[in-house]
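seq:
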Amino acid sequence: MAPKYLVIAGYALFIFGSLLATHLSDDFSGPQFMASSLVRAVAQSMVMMPLSAIAVSGIEHEYAGSASAMFNMLRNLGGAIGIAALQTFLTKREQFHSNILTSQVSLLGEATRARLAHLATFFGERLSAAPDLAQHEAAIAVGRVVRREAMIMAFDDTVLLQSALLGFALIGIFFLKKGAIKAGGEAH
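struct:
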């Protein structure tokens, strides 16, 4: 199979594997990510070697080693920049969702007051705490739930962004010149 078609299939699998990790909840842990991780592992093997071969195809034999080294250096640099960008996006989205959720948790809302009263009773009974301390613990517990849910939504957004970026990379493969891609690259 031509390297271009392996890369296309690999990127398609990458996108599919990433989308398997959406719809997160607080019940997710290692086993729930197994299918997504396995699909992405297969996709990575389908993308990396053929992409390296494509990058150095058409390079004269004496420069192939340098071209391969340059490709690997740029790939590592791009990975570091990508990780930093995704981490920044994750942080900003967590702040966004936290602001939205916090605005919905108002002491004027009946549901919020009922939840705080229930938690205050729970903490008062379990911790033999004074009513003020039980109320404080209840407010902290609600804050933790808001933060957890905001973080889960932010991770979901980040996975969707990653999938979209992989889609752009997939589209970019279609713009490669036909003559520049050979089945047997000179990569080292």
